[in-house]
Specification:
The complex is a heterodimer. By secondary structure, chain A is an alpha/beta fold. In chain A, 45% of the residues lie in helices and 10% in strands. Chain A has one domain (47-322): Alpha-Beta Barrel (TIM Barrel), CATH 3.20.20.70. In chain B, helix 9 crosses helix 10 (305-316). The chains are: A alpha/beta, B alpha/beta.
Chain lengths: 331, 480
């Protein structure tokens, strides 16, 4: 089956950026108040979280369920190239692959978005015109985020002007780890404003936050600030996406929706390379937050090599035999 | 939850096991038919008869005990301890090699999900043999005197909830310490014990060191009351445990009993709630709640009660109940019609006494013995579902307001096998744990087992410890 992106799904029902959802209207009145709120969230037991994902990792997904999972995973891919050596030609070639991931099989769904640096957003936009595939651009001095707020906002506005439908920003991890939560919050609010109608993914860079308690706090911070998606990693820091981190982020979006009525998406990025990894994530969604998140409107994989493995497994399922890596295109 | 992502059936193949139409007793290294009337063992998930199994009469038990005595005096007792260890290592490796076979057979005979028999029962059983194999030639360093000696023949009676694992808990320490064994498996789950007998032959274990006599209560009585048995080890119900204690009273036999439980799982308001919910599920729904140390009483701090119960119900809604052979099944079949009747009786008592019952939606299979995961809220400590061991997937939720109240309520039971505590505050965990009268206390986890850790109860949960250095004491004597 093929997923079609619902253009309304990503619209922010909470209104203008910076408006806090009802039950949390005053938690950002001061840094101390915000800190008290974030530290009052239930803790995460790291051993327990690991045990849970290990157990879910034993789910056996076969035949029809596997076929559904592979197609769904393909439709959730943010096909990514974030190299210093990127060129317009490479982006155009990626766009072609995004539209028709398997040129020999028209039933193969397209991916959700192509993710590039801001200066190439225009190239991607042109190459993807009329396809319904979004252009995502990383911004805010990605991947380190070490620049003045003015530079970061200019970066965002530039990418949006270039045609980006989605902005992947990084949070200021230094400020977060130093306990300056309100600074991080205000920066996300400002970026969200600069995004205009483009929707905002907030990269927490969980590999630098290290603890799962910090991941939960950063997730809530980003959701309160108006992020449409929370995203694990830039892909430039190791470890990138891990299953326990994804579990905690899914629990956060689940609890946030229960409290505010607003649904936020999740995007693990970096380190997800195999179909098996992708299926484990889908199982995690299915049994943590449920089917409401099982669509590219609410869940994405930030990945470059994952797509080829999904395509090989898809071919295997259809033809009954494995083909080699030469049967999918190199990027 | 809608069904956007339905898991296709993923049944484990049963072709790896070859179930014979009938099984005999394993005495003195040979299988024979026995002289009692054979029993039938059924698959509780389908009610299909799996095999006919011999019943050991008093004479059969006597033959087994004599074989064990012979093996003890002639072979196993005098053997170099390091060589005994080699046999145990060999058995452990064979259990690993034949792990899938054991897992499939256990699931067919017991009704537990293949995920659990594959990932818990069989690996832990092998781990117990590995652990005790290592002890075999180091017993003088076990803190039990300079030259501890074996007792002789151990008569062991085990339950149906973890057939192979309970066998390992009993047989591994007995053999490592130089004793020989007459073991009676539960009447509803004899098959993995008989497969274990084949493993003993495969490992060239000397004849008579392990004898397995199947049968029902009568056979068990014959084992524990045989005059030439030096040591009795029993795991099962408190009721049967009492009668064994009476039978053994006034004799020279040593006795360890591992009996029932009604464990409190205590959730403080500073707990990691999501993991606590996982732990509650694992505490009461692991192995369909057929666990003597199951966390069947949930004590939740009042300030988080509603939040925890809501999260728990949401989580229980994702449990997959059904075919135990499906690799994605979380909750399998109730082991027997008899046990199902007992669960139903206690649940009906909960309804009558005014507790509020909740069960998730969903259908149960038509054939076989099944019971839905069940949560009772508004439970008062006086009600039967708060006091009696249900031994099924039934949780009773109560509240408390202060740590002292939590401890008082947790200890207010005739049992004392296990308990759990959930809190992010280390000092609270330490202070509450030291006040709980339970043999095992889990902190921020539940139903976690390891051969290095002693296991056993307070009060009517029995006496003696199994596992760890402490568990060796039950099978050894010092200089006397």
């Amino acid at each position: 089956m093929t997923h079609v992106l619902d253009p309304d799904a990503l619209a922010d029902p909470s209104g203008a950026a910076g408006t806090l959802p009802d039950p949390f209207a005053d938690v950002t009145r001061s840094n101390d108040a915000f800190r008290a709120f974030l530290h009052g969230l239930p803790g995460v037991d790291q051993v327990g979280a690991q045990a849970r994902v290990t157990q879910l990792g034993t789910r056996s997904i076969k035949t029809t369920a596997k076929a559904w999972a592979i197609d769904t995973a393909i439709s959730m891919v943010d096909l990514t190239t974030l190299e210093g050596s990127d060129t317009p030609g490479k982006v155009r070639s990626l766009a072609a692959k995004a539209r028709r991931p398997d040129p020999e099989d028209p039933t193969c769904p397209p991916v959700a978005a192509v993710c590039v640096y801001g200066d190439l957003a225009g190239v991607a936009k042109e190459a993807l015109a009329g396809t319904g595939i979004n252009v995502a651009a990383v911004a805010t001095a990605f991947p380190s985020g070490r620049a003045s707020r003015a530079v970061k906002l200019a970066d965002v506005r530039d990418a949006v002007a270039g045609g980006a439908d989605e902005i992947d920003m990084v949070i200021d991890r230094g400020a977060f780890l130093a306990g300056r939560y309100l600074d991080v919050f205000e920066e996300i609010v400002a970026v969200k404003q600069a995004c205009g109608s483009a929707h905002l993914k907030v990269i927490l860079e969980t590999g630098e936050l290290v603890t799962l308690d910090a991941v939960r706090r950063a997730s809530w911070l980003a959701m309160l600030a108006g992020g449409d998606f929370i995203k694990t990693s830039t892909g430039k820091v190791s470890p990138a996406a891990t299953l326990p981190v994804c579990l905690v982020m899914l629990e956060a979006v689940r609890d946030f929706r229960a409290a505010t009525g607003r649904q936020v998406g999740v995007k693990p990025a970096g380190g997800i390379r195999t179909t098996k990894d992708a299926v484990k994530h889908l199982v995690l969604i299915n049994e943590t937050v449920g089917a409401d998140w099982l669509s590219p409107d609410w869940f994405r994989f930030g990945a470059s090599s994952l797509l080829n493995d999904l395509l090989l497994q898809r071919q295997k399922l259809r033809t009954g035999h494995y083909s080699g890596p030469d049967h999918v295109s190199v990027d | 939850m809608t069904s956007l992502f339905e898991y296709a059936p993923a049944p484990e193949s049963r072709s790896i096991v070859d179930i014979r139409p009938s099984y005999g007793l394993f005495i003195d290294g040979e299988f024979d038919e026995g002289t009692g009337t054979p029993l039938k063992t059924v698959n509780p998930a389908t009610e299909e008869v799996l095999a006919e199994v011999a019943t050991g009469s008093t004479e059969d038990v006597d033959r087994a005990v004599r074989a064990a005595r012979r093996a003890f005096t002639r072979v196993w007792g005098p053997m170099r301890p390091a060589d005994r260890g080699k046999y145990l290592f060999r058995i452990a490796r064979l259990l690993q090699e034949r792990a899938r076979e054991f897992a499939v057979l256990e699931t067919l005979d017991n009704g537990k999900p293949i995920r659990e028999s594959r990932d818990v029962d069989v690996p832990l059983a092998a781990a117990h043999f590995f652990y005790h194999a290592g002890w075999a030639d180091k017993l003088e360093h076990a803190g039990l005197g300079p030259a501890p000696r074996p007792l002789g023949v151990a008569g062991q009676v085990i339950p149906w909830n973890f057939p192979l694992l309970m066998l390992a808990w009993k047989v591994a320490p007995a053999l490592a310490t130089g004793n020989t064994v007459v073991l009676k498996p539960a009447e509803t789950t004899p098959l993995t014990a008989l497969l274990f007998a084949e493993v003993c032959r495969q490992a060239d274990l000397p004849a008579g060191v392990v004898n397995i006599v199947t049968g029902a209560g009568e056979t068990g009585r014959a084992v524990v009351s045989h005059p030439d048995v030096d040591k009795v080890a029993f795991t099962g119900s408190t009721e049967v445990g009492r009668s064994i204690a009476r039978a053994v009273a006034g004799t020279d036999k040593r006795l360890t009993l591992e009996l029932g439980g009604k464990a409190a799982n205590i959730v403080f308001d500073d707990a990691p709630i999501d993991q606590a919910v996982e732990g509650i599920v694992r505490g009461i729904f692991f192995n369909q709640g057929h666990v003597c140390c199951a966390g069947s009483r949930l004590l939740v701090q009042e300030s988080v009660h509603d939040e925890v119960v809501a999260a728990l119900q949401r989580r229980i809604g994702t449990l997959r109940v059904g075919d135990p052979m499906d690799k994605n099944t979380d909750l399998g079949a109730i082991n027997s019609a008899e046990q199902l009747a007992r669960i139903r009786e206690l649940v009906a008592a909960g309804d009558d006494e005014g507790a509020r019952r909740w069960q998730p939606e969903g259908e149960l299979p038509d054939r076989g013995y099944w019971f839905k995961p069940t949560v009772f809220t508004d439970v008062s400590p006086a009600q039967r579902i708060a006091r009696d061991e249900v031994f099924g997937p039934v949780l009773s939720v109560m509240t408390f307001r202060t740590p002292d109240e939590a401890v008082a309520k947790a200890n207010n039971t005739t049992y004392g096998l296990s308990a759990g505590i959930w809190s992010e505050k280390g000092s609270r965990i330490l202070s509450v744990t030291s006040k709980l009268r339970a043999g095992v206390v889990w902190a921020n986890t539940f139903n976690e087992f390891d051969p290095t850790s002693p296991f056993g109860g307070y009060k009517q949960s029995g006496y003696g410890r199994e596992g760890g250095r402490q568990g060796l004491a039950a099978y050894l004597k010092g200089d006397d």
